[in-house]
Structure to design on (705 residues):
């Protein structure tokens, strides 16, 4: 019982630390102090989140919940939040030196960083579909402000586009949430209980299936906009390219996962209701469209951050496809791929952030021979791209292999476009990375400021995951995969 | 009472859809802002009536916020922005008025067909309310799509938000979200007005989103 209370405390701390840190960072002056505080607060949140893995879980409350599905994502979220804050400290120091950021904006940036972490953590632990919506919206609004941080015309256009598309998506998701409430209300009764996720799943069998179907269409369109599924992806490359790079890493690595997690919660709800439409075909089509579209778009990219943003769309497509296929194996692969993608892609963005700073440009054509001029950075990028392109022995290969093999076993015809998309993306990424990493060095030769540690920590984890996944993790994912149907 | 309550709710929600239609053919900024004020007023009446027939005190708060912020403060603030910054008073529309109106009618028909078909067993009041709300949301989207002007897009988005609040109040006994969504819509409005329009103005000397296109990254 005592341990249970501790886990409840841990959840409270995960939410409280970012809020308090955000408030402090908004008022404290000075770069050194605030960057350290940002790192410290993120580390503390991560350590508290780690205790969740061992502590006995509290019973689901009216608002908060810890279960097999979200526990991994909370830990992942706080971990990447921590490494990104370490990377951000070095990155921001350089931006201050070059005068792209002023101290006032720096304060704003750090405060927003913590508020964004709060929003994402809240979205993961919320047991109430209304609260989850609010949390996703909060995370969206803070990232909009951060994307526009540099106030260049490009950054403002990116922020505006992100804001408009993100708000429309979030509005559609709210309508879907209201429809779920309408479906639940005759069964569960009026009031707060009809928005509690655990209650909803327990009673889903009695809900009106037609209303649930309609709700799911709105929810997948709404949250799908935030996942970056084609054709609702237009905000994603701009937002990644124009914002500060730590934010690109967090956007790709974490925020897309948050939106996808929301979709998964509702998918479980639909699976629990036997009369409702199978969400599979819709997700398969959206996933494949995103994958193939992004794979083709990868060839025409001239901006390095934009290229990896399209690669994120591609991977989100693979993941949504896997969940659409359903079944224990494909769902398991989808969950593993979510984790692997988030670690690998944020590592790549850390590398890209350093590259853009030493070379002073994001244009692919102007960057060459990184392995010669900056060996550590260059080989780090190569390792990251090898991982994200799905080559063995990295973890991404394992999850992609699972997706492809389970598709071949069940729907061989669907495997053709899937493999085609994967190969296209693979070719595009390798083509570009050879240009970036090899050949005669070209462009700025400055020294890299800041640590390479975050990047290599992520890559090491992805490498290890290619061979070995901890048994508790496998057990949790198996359980969730069964729930997902 | 049951018949009257239903008819009045129907009238007010239908009025909101009509005002949404009025937005579609405005080609002047001031007129569009005024119509938005009217839209918020229609929402206020509709929410207040729902509060009365559902006997839900907290919905009066929602109605009051809709009246004060959406019908008065935001239109006045937008007018001030337009006047101070000397934004073009005429709105460039991406599509002609005729096709836009036809598309609007199509969207309303679509939302009726969709919503009424899937909710045959629901409370008739709630289901018609939802159908109207979906129409308002889709019309708001249409306004956003057909305006090339940042202020026009913001107004489209805020009318969409009004549709959401109509839906949330129509769903009987829905907790918490009504207040929170109102707080959020106000927050969004502030962010838009305070940060974006100001910055866009600072950088572009125009609030025409079309002017931003030339700044797109990745020029060929």
């Amino acid at each position: 019982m005592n341990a249970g209370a501790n886990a409840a405390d841990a959840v409270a701390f995960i939410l409280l630390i970012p809020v308090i840190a955000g408030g402090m960072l908004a008022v404290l002056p000075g770069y050194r102090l605030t960057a350290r505080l940002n790192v410290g607060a993120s580390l503390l949140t991560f350590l508290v989140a780690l205790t969740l893995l061992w502590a006995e879980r509290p019973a689901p409350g009216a608002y908060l919940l810890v279960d097999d599905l979200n526990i991994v994502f909370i830990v992942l979220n706080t971990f990447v939040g921590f490494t990104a804050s370490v990377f951000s400290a070095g990155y921001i120091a350089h931006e201050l030196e070059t005068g792209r950021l002023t101290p006032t904006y720096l304060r704003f940036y750090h405060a927003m960083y913590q508020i964004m972490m709060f929003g994402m953590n809240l979205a993961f632990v919320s047991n109430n579909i209304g609260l989850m919506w609010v949390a996703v919206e909060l995370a969206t609004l803070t990232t909009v402000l951060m994307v526009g941080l540099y106030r260049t015309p490009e950054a403002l256009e990116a922020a505006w586009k992100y804001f408009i598309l993100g708000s429309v998506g979030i509005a559609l998701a709210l309508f879907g949430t209201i429809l779920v409430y309408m479906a639940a209300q005759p069964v569960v009764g009026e009031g707060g209980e009809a928005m509690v996720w655990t209650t909803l799943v327990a009673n889903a069998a009695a809900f009106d299936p037609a209303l649930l179907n309609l709700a799911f269409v709105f929810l997948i369109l709404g949250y799908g906009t935030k996942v970056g599924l084609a054709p609702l992806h237009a905000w994603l490359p701009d937002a990644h390219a124009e914002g500060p790079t730590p934010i690109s890493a967090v956007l790709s690595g974490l925020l897309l996962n948050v939106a996808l997690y929301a979709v998964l919660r509702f998918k479980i709800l639909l699976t629990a209701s036997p009369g409702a439409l199978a969400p599979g075909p819709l997700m398969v089509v959206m996933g494949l469209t995103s994958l193939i579209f992004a794979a083709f778009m990868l060839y025409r990219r001239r901006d390095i951050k934009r290229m990896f943003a399209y690669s994120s769309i591609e991977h989100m497509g693979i993941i949504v496809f896997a969940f659409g296929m359903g079944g224990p194996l494909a769902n398991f692969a989808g969950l593993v791929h979510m984790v692997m993608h988030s670690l690998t892609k944020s590592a790549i963005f850390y590398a890209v952030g350093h590259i853009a700073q030493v070379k002073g440009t994001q244009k692919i054509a102007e960057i060459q021979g990184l392995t010669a001029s900056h060996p550590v950075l260059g080989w780090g990028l190569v390792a990251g791209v090898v991982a994200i392109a799905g080559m063995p022995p990295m973890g991404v290969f394992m999850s992609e292999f699972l997706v492809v093999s389970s598709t071949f076993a069940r729907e061989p015809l669907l495997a053709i476009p899937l493999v085609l998309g994967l190969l296209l993306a693979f070719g595009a990424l390798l083509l570009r990375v050879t240009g970036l990493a090899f050949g005669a060095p070209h462009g700025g030769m400055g020294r890299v400021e800041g640590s390479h540690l975050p990047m290599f920590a992520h890559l090491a984890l992805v490498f290890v995951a290619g061979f070995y996944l901890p048994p508790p993790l496998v057990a949790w994912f198996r359980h969730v995969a069964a729930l997902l149907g | 009472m049951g018949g009257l309550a239903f008819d009045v709710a129907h009238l007010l929600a239908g009025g909101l859809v009509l005002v949404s239609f009025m937005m579609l053919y405005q080609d002047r900024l001031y007129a569009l802002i005024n119509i938005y004020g009217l839209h918020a007023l229609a929402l206020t009446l509709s929410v207040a009536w729902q509060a009365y027939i559902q006997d839900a005190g907290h919905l009066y708060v929602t109605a009051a916020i809709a009246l004060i912020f959406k019908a008065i403060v935001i239109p006045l603030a937008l007018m001030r922005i337009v006047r101070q910054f000397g934004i073009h008073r005429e709105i460039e529309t991406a599509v002609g008025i005729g096709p836009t109106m036809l598309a609007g009618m199509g969207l309303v028909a679509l939302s009726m067909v969709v919503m009424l078909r899937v909710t045959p067993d629901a409370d008739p009041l709630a289901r018609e309310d939802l159908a109207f709300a979906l129409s308002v949301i889709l019309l708001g989207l249409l306004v956003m799509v057909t305006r090339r002007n940042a202020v026009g897009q913001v107004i489209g988005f805020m009318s969409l938000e009004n549709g959401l609040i109509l839906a949330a109040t129509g769903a009987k006994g829905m907790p918490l979200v009504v207040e929170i969504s109102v707080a959020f819509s106000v927050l969004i409005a502030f962010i838009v007005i305070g940060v974006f329009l100001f910055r866009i103005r600072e950088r572009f000397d125009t609030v025409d989103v079309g002017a931003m296109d030339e700044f797109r990254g990745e020029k060929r």
Residues 278-485 of chain A form one domain.
